[in-house]
Structures are given as C-alpha cells and as structure tokens.
Amino acid sequence: MSDDTPTQLEFGWEEWVALPDLGLPALRAKVDTGARTSALHASEIEVFGPNAKPKVRFIVNPVAGDDGLAIPCSATILDRREVTSSNGEKEMRYVIGSKLTVNGQSWPIEITLTNRAGMASRMLLGRQALTEHITITATEKHLQPELSYDVYRSAGLRKTAPKRALRIAVLSREDNYSTRRLVQEGEARGHTVEVIDTTRCYMAINAMSPEVHYDGARLPRYDAVVPRIGASITPYGTAVIRQFETIGTYCVNGSTGIASSRDKLQAHQILASQKIGMPTTAFAASPKDTRNLMDLVGTAPMIVKLLESTQGKGVVLAETKKAAESVIDAFRGLRANFLVQHFVKEAAGEDIRCLVIAGKVVAAMKRTGADGDFRSNLHRGGTAKVARITRQERATAVKAAKAFGLGIAGVDLLRSEDGPKVLEVNSSPGFEGIETATGKNVVGFLYDEIETHAAPKPTRRKVRSGG
Length: 467
What we know:
Elements: E1 9-11, E2 14-19, E3 24-31, E4 38-41, E5 43-48, E6 55-60, E7 69-84, E8 90-102, E9 105-114, E10 123-125, E11 134-136, H1 156-160, E12 167-171, H2 177-188, E13 192-196, E14 201-204, E15 211-214, E16 217-218, E17 224-227, H3 234-247, E18 250-251, H4 255-262, H5 264-273, E19 281-282, H6 290-297, E20 302-306, E21 315-318, H7 321-333, E22 338-342, E23 350-357, E24 360-368, E25 383-386, H8 391-403, E26 408-416, E27 419-426, H9 432-438, H10 442-454, E28 459-460
Parallel strand pairs: 1-11, 3-10, 4-9, 12-13, 12-17, 17-18
Antiparallel strand pairs: 2-3, 4-10, 5-6, 6-7, 7-8, 7-28, 8-9, 14-15, 15-16, 19-22, 20-21, 20-22, 23-24, 23-26, 24-25, 26-27
C-alpha cells in the first residue's frame, strides 16, 4: 500500500497509532475534529542546530502514568505557531512532521509538541491528520487494530529505533582539515556539530550540578564530545574533558587517555607494562648518568627526544655516542625533559600509521621521510601511501590504543627485525594524510562509533515518589 493513497479507514474517538519516524511504535491517540493540528506529549524540549534549519529534541513518555519510560526523539522544526487549547489558553508550540501509521497504512502529518501529562491519551489527532479516507464514528473507540505498550519492553526496540539527530561538540582551536571534516561528515548525517575553542571554556565545579560555560553562557547538553586538544593546552584541555565526563557526556577520547598518551615517559611505561613492543628507551634526571643512560639503550646511532615533542619537533638523531652526549648536555642545559631511544635502523626513515577506531584498524598508511630526514612526519615534508599491514601489526596497534583507553588513536609503528615497535600513540590524529593516502572515509568510521554509543535510546528511569 502506498503511503500517499491510504484505503478507507474508520476511526472511533480513540485509536492506537504509531509514529515510526520518532521511534514510537504504540500510542493511544484521542481523535479531535475540533483541533486543526495534532499534538504530542513532550517534555525536556530543546532546540538545536543552525538557524537556517533548526531541530528540536524532546522526551516522550508514551504510557500515561508511567513517567519512568522515556523515549528520546528528535526532528526538524517545520514551524512555531500559537495554538489555543480547548480551555482557551494560548501557547507557542514547535511544529514537526512525521508519518502516522495505522493498520499498516502510513501518511505524513504535522504535530505540535506540548505537555499532555494530565491526559490519558498522549497524542491528539487533529483535522490535518484525518484525511478524506477516514470516517469518524464518535460513539465508538478502537475500531482499528489495538496495539500494546509491551513493545516498549522489547529488546528489539533499541535496534529498530530510527537514527536520531545528535548534538556534537568538537573541542578545537584550529580551522584545519580535520575539524572541517568532522563538521562536514556530521552535518551530512543530519547531526548538529559545533566547534568550541577549548581555551574559552570555563567550568562550574560543584557536586550537584557541574557545568561547562562558554563565552558567558552555559553550554547545552551534548550527545558527544570529540576532543581535538593541542599539545600546548593538554592540562587545561583535559580538565575541560573531565568536566564533560563528570556531567555524563560521551567523550570519544577520555581525559585520562589523552593525558597519558601526551606524557611520553608515562606512555612508554604504559606500553611496557602491557608488554607492547617498542624501541628500547631510557630516562634519567641526573647529568651524572649520561653515559649509563646511553649504555641502557645500546650502541649509536640513537634518538634523543624531548618529552613535549610533537610532529617531529624536538627529535634528534645522534649518529655517534659523542654526538648523543652533546645533544643530551644541550637539552639538560635547557632544563628540558627527554628520552633516549634505540634507533631502529632497518625502518629506513619509514613508519606505519594505523588509525584505530573502537578497537579496529580502519586505515593504515606508510609514511616516508623527506630526503635526508629520518623523521617520517608529513608536517616535515614526508610522503604517504596506503599500507598493507600484517596480522601482528594490526594486533599491536589495537592493543596499544586499548592500553590508553582511546576510542580513536593514531598508532605509529616501526618495522624492525624482531617485529613491530610502537613509536607513539596519538590521541588527536589528523585525518587529511590518511584519508588522502587510503581514499577511505575515516571520519565516517568515527561517526559510526559515535552514533552507536551516543545516540539516545529508550530508557527506564527511576521516578521519585512524592511525600
């Protein structure tokens, strides 16, 4: 049966209906020919999205008298209009659209959102929903097949619920490829994506109602936060993420994982504790230990790396022990913290970047350093191409991301004679290089994970009794 041409139906003064677009498979609806537009009971109504195409999300308690059953819904706003109720009260309501389904037949209707908490029927069907194919017998009810609220207790309801528009925050200070792709892909999927400068966030820290504020106003409730925290603001950035975690917002990468991955000393200690292969590494605070420090790593050449290094900056290849000693003395003269690492010569200036999302390697590329440069960073003139990785390399990358509890991570591997070695675990990996090299929609994989974890689902809430 076509949605546009329903066959003749007979309605009583109350019928069972469904609104599948909103994830509501069973509702008791009162038929009211005196009302123009249909109305749906809704609470926690919140507007979001761009001004040109705003959306609304809200909660529906489909069963009268059972406020514990809460169905989260979202829809595009069609209009906002004044509605006069049967007792003469006027109210401004948001108007949305949805398909109405009765007895296997569906057709589009308009619905206003309002509080019907005191009504036995959580929906009212107005004239606009009652097409010429419907006749009304006002003295009868349930002339169409009856439905059951038991469907809301079904485990399959979560699986069949429609994809709902999400409100997502990207914590980023930069207008770069990665940030733009996060916005582009999210909006293409119908979500609202807001880019927030992390350093302009501030926090109300209290036990009862922790909040994040931005430019003088409290930030709204987000379904998910995607952190793109720069290395220079790691301490403050992770504090902001902790605040979102306290509120209960789903964060793609948590504050603990970001902080530990950025601390190169702690990162290597975590990798070692999980028995994950990495270049032999040594660290010391005393200048007297320079020679012993180098002996722990082995023979030259060796890498001397600042703990705060990013994108290949602050990483020096010392060809001889004498050169290494000079570099170490120079770093110590600057009171800089650093590591000394074994140089994996057989890697020949190449590494493998594995992008891990939700415990799976979704893309991998081989990066090759510019002529004469042992560093393979693309920011330093390196090149990249798609890489075929071994089962062992795949397992190592997944294990490394898991060790830090990261939902998304760029795991850099070196191919050594005795297996893959983890060079670094990046908690804010860039997307441009790997999407260009592999031709894969990496950001799309990330949104698949966000939609799985952050999409609002039917819930059973605890309702406090009065007294």
